[in-house]
């Protein structure tokens, strides 16, 4: 399993909780009802990428820490 760096841009996050609902072991809401990463290894990579893709504002970025490859959003 790859080590992932997952970040949430709080300028974009509106607290829709799609990520929290899909991967509660990775994402939780803070006191401002914005998502924060609590454990980047709290779900499978597949589920983390799915949660990121469901974010309605595109606030989540996922990067492979070993290679630096941006997994989400994908670079084209």
CATH domain class name: Alpha Beta
Give the domain tally.
1
How much of the polypeptide forms β-strand, as a percent range? 25-35%
Which bin fits the share of residues in helices? 10-25%
Output the strand order for the largest sheet. Answer: 1-4-5
CATH architecture label? 2-Layer Sandwich
Using only C-alpha atoms, the radius of gyration works out to: 11 Å
Structural class determined from secondary elements: alpha+beta
Order of helices and strands: EHEEHEE
Largest sheet: 3 strands, antiparallel
Distance between the termini: 24 Å
Shape: globular
The CATH topology: Alpha-Beta Plaits
Low-confidence stretches: none
Number of helices: 2
Secondary structure tally: strands: 5
What's the rounded overall pLDDT mean? 96
Features:
two-stranded antiparallel ribbon; Alpha-Beta Plaits; 76 residues; alpha+beta
What does this structure look like?
This protein has 76 residues and is an alpha+beta fold. It has one domain (4-72): Alpha-Beta Plaits (2-Layer Sandwich), CATH 3.30.70. It is built from two helices and five strands. The strands form two sheets. Strands 1-4-5 form a three-stranded antiparallel beta sheet. A two-stranded antiparallel ribbon has the order 2-3. The longest helix has 10 residues, at 45-54. The chain is globular. The mean pLDDT is 96.
């Amino acid at each position: 399993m790859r080590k992932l760096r997952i970040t949430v841009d709080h300028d974009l996050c509106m607290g829709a909780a799609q990520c929290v609902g899909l991967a509660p072991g990775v994402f939780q809401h803070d006191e401002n009802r914005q998502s924060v990463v609590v454990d980047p290894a709290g779900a499978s990579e597949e589920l983390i990428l799915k949660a990121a893709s469901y974010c309605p504002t595109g606030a989540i970025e996922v990067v492979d820490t070993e290679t630096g490859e941006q997994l989400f959003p994908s670079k084209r």
